[in-house]
Amino acid sequence: MVSWIISRLVVLVFGTLYPAYSSYKAVKSKDVKEYVKWMMYWIIFALFTSVEVFTDMFLCWLPFYYELKIAFVVWLLSPYTKGSSVLYRKFVHPTLSSKEKDIDEYICQAKDKSYDTLVHFGRKGLNVAATAAVMAATKGQGVLSDRLRSFSMQDLSSYQSDPVNSSSDSTQPAAAQHRTRPMMRSKSESYKGEEMSGT
């Protein structure tokens, strides 16, 4: 357990943080040789961490396994051994160069399939959302109709006979109210008469 913790710390500090800071310095100084050196390192380190997932599961019982990992990370970083440059130039670059077209085609196909899958699941998601909206609307329709029923004709008639509305009419004397109604009738009748005579 102790050797596992130490190996994790060494990989974190010397395998990740120190190279990240050195990469920052290379970008800041715009030194092409440093760019190339650290790009080779990060390619090898990415492969190392990918393989490490499986070796940690199956080979952790080997004696000195974690010590070998620490030694490997130090070998990759060392400016004397230039381990990452050696591995990249002898193994990784020739392998990737020979398989580059196949890898690019595979990545293109994976992108197309992932796009098709995304569209397919997007449509399914929209269908599920639409179905849920329709179900919610049909369930909520009963509540809506109950609320609409509360505004029945009886409610409207009681609103018209509301004392607030009738108070404006009650301010006029009853005789004046009767007079205004015949005047309105006579005006409407006179308009009708003009229309008849105009034709």
From TrEMBL:
Pfam families: TB2_DP1_HVA22. GO terms for cellular component: cytoplasmic microtubule; endoplasmic reticulum membrane; endoplasmic reticulum tubular network. Residues 186-199 have a biased composition (Basic and acidic residues). Keywords: Membrane, Transmembrane, Transmembrane helix. It is found in: Membrane. InterPro entries: TB2_DP1_HVA22 (IPR004345). The keyword Transmembrane applies. One of its GO terms (biological process) is cellular response to oxidative stress. It is a multi-pass membrane protein. Belongs to the DP1 family. This is Receptor expression-enhancing protein. It comes from Haplochromis burtoni.
